[in-house]
Amino acid sequence: MKNIYSEDAFTGLEAAIVLIAFVVVAAVFSYVVLGAGFFTTQTAQATVHTGVAQASSSLEVVGNVMGIQNTDAVAAGQLSYVNTSVALTAGGTAMDLTQMVISYSDNNGGRNPSIANTTDLTCGQLTSGGLDTSVAAMADIEWCVAQKINDLNPTTPNNLLESNEIWVLSIQTPDTATVNTKITFNLQPAVGAVLPISRTLPGGLNAVQAIY
User: Fold this and answer.
1) pTM for this predicted structure
2) Integer CA distances (angstroms), 45 to 73, 91, 170, 191, 200, in order
3) How is 100-122 classified by DSSP, letter by letter?
4) Could you tell me which residues come within 8 angstroms of residue 94 by beta carbon, excluding any fewer than 6 positions away?
5) pLDDT tens digits for 120-130?
């Protein structure tokens, strides 16, 4: 039977069509490969940024941690509460402190996994003597913001700790916070690692004193 097909019929136009098809397929394949690579790179970058944010705390302690002893606690040798000043770390974004969890522990068995905060976080201003009577009047173990230094919104108060602001936190302590006791507060912000604050109470307590 005579072959009706001939190699001579394969014209330049057909060759161009085949070449274009190969180029299009190669381009699509390259786009898919590059897209997958870009997606993997972006995912890895996001993972790194998230890891850095979680590994480093967004808060830092500024200055000394002050121990406050109320008159009623003098005879018992108990610490009433501590005042600690906190600020954002360099480059940190504004932080809503209502989302922060503060826990407490000491070597006398005192434990509190989540110290409650006051309704609006405020507990008045420190007096000239360093005592805040509104803190002492709180019936339960709570924490609050006793003072805002460099407040960026003095006329419209909010609960956002912002850059360059320093907030004084007053944190009440239980009856187990007595002389020669190591106490630890863990400040857990909504984003970032826990900021631990560990101090050992001295053998004698004054009304106001720095604790180390």
Assistant:
1) 0.68
2) 53, 19, 39, 18, 41
3) -EEEEEETTS-EEEEEEEEEEEE
4) 88, 160, 161, 162, 163
5) 787 754 444 44
